[in-house]
Amino acid sequence: MAKSEKASIFQPERRTLSVTFLVLSGSSIMCVASAIDPLRAANRVSGETLFDWKTVSLDGTAPITTSGLPVAVSGPFDPAERTDVLAIIGGFGTRDHGTSGRLAGIRRVARSARAYGGIEAGSWLVARAGLLEGRAATTHWEDMEDFSSAFPGTDVRPDRYVIDGPAFTAGGASPTFDLMLHLVRSRLGMAVALDVASVFIYDQARAATDAQPLVSLGRLDGYDPRLAQAIRLMETHIDQPLTISAIARRAGVTARTLEGVFSRSIGETPGAYYLRLRLHAARRLVLDTRLAMADVAARCGFSSSAAFSRAFSRAFGNAPTAMRR
Fold it and tell me: For the chain, what is the radius of gyration of the CA atoms?
């Protein structure tokens, strides 16, 4: 990496990443939620503020989404304010927001930031600011042809999302969620990304009658199908944990092979992941119910309240009774 280049935000790093979301009227509320809520969930499941975001609008008033719902903002877009990431969320009418002054402000912030990008029609403003020239990008499929014609110097692709150097673009609400999961996975690891996906029951299409899983594998690329099978076995045996050997047998592999699958895909042993899965289930019961701690311990497969309290304290830094208070 040359000295003039900024380190990618899509790499392992646990320092807090500041993100400014510039939301334009005419945006989809689902795009806004898909951009912001995975970051909130990542903070929650990690127990740290690893993403610090703010939402702004062009003039400081609440932008109105296509559903008629306003988005609360902290103020107007300020080109003099520093941020690690600038993400522009746009929709209907976004092309009309590209005045010379606004584009100059976007260029100023983007060039001082570590990364910048457009979500759905937000890519139009990023491109009009000259920030996608010579780079690969995408936008919503309905605009693909017009976008390609308007910006011949951009390598326009029909992908769900595209990352090219400091620039990122996403084609809509679901691709934006994929992009944010990729950001979480790149920075914090596969295990945290799985936890974030699970918060939203985010998975491939399932019938309405299927049981809701604790762990949603989502569209995280590159996971081994044996990993998925093992995790499904773990989540259905929270209260009476299986041995790793039993899980491996049911997945049709040896325990040693399963260790390798988890190490490559998640960076943890099966036993460590299984314990984390049970402890996160326990934390939900501690925070969201009034169940007695002995019942929480039993539901999450701990032999005693004392063993549960010790494991919980090691994982989260607080005893379950203290966290509930």
Answer: 22
